[in-house]
Amino acid sequence: MSIGERIKNRRKELKLSVDEVAKKLGKNRATIYRYESDEIEDMPISVIADLAKILDVDPGFLMGWTDLKEDLTATSEYTYIPTSISAGAPIVAEAVTDYETEKITLPDSVMGKWAGHKDIFIMRVNGDSMNKVMPHGSLIAVKKVELSQLKNDDIVVYSDGGDYAVKRFYMYDDELIFRPDSEDLRFSEMRIKIDNAENVRIHGKVVLYIVELD
Description:
Shape: elongated
Order of helices and strands: HHHHHEEEHEEEEEEE
Number of domains: 2
Largest sheet: 10 strands, mixed
Structural class: alpha+beta
Number of strands: 10
CATH superfamily of the largest domain: Umud Fragment, subunit A
Helix content: 10-25%
CATH architecture of the largest domain: Ribbon
Number of helices: 6
CATH topology of the largest domain: Umud Fragment, subunit A
Distance between the termini: 44 Å
């Protein structure tokens, strides 16, 4: 597919008229028709970049370098729980309550395939018991899941009687195991008999984390 065809097809997807594109681009309608019919072979990069913004796509899509119509400026809003979630012993974490939730906006390019998902909420890690994979202060994206959807070694947010923590999850025989993943060997795993787990809740699986290295 040529550049002109990509421009024309995307314009029609967005239900934009030639006149609307021409006005936004600062060109006349005849020039837009020439772009779409590939009459102008050496289209300036600056024009391609401006067209990409108008058509809400990545310039690489118009050039034919990629099939992804990715808008690198796109963002989505998520529920954000401002209370840091413990990556230490669960007992030191504050309980998360509904009225503490806020909203946070993150780039779709950062969230990847989870961009825009309504069942995702965002929290911040507090502590070092998961510092092999997510250092203190990391943002985590948590997807609500059922216990049956979890696999051993998944990272989960859970609570035991109101205290919240993030750990690796395992289920063997009659036990639930919540295991740290830390450089600090002083952190230990928590084992709970399934028969005694009436206060344990799995709030979600960590599907993505954002790390600030310095």
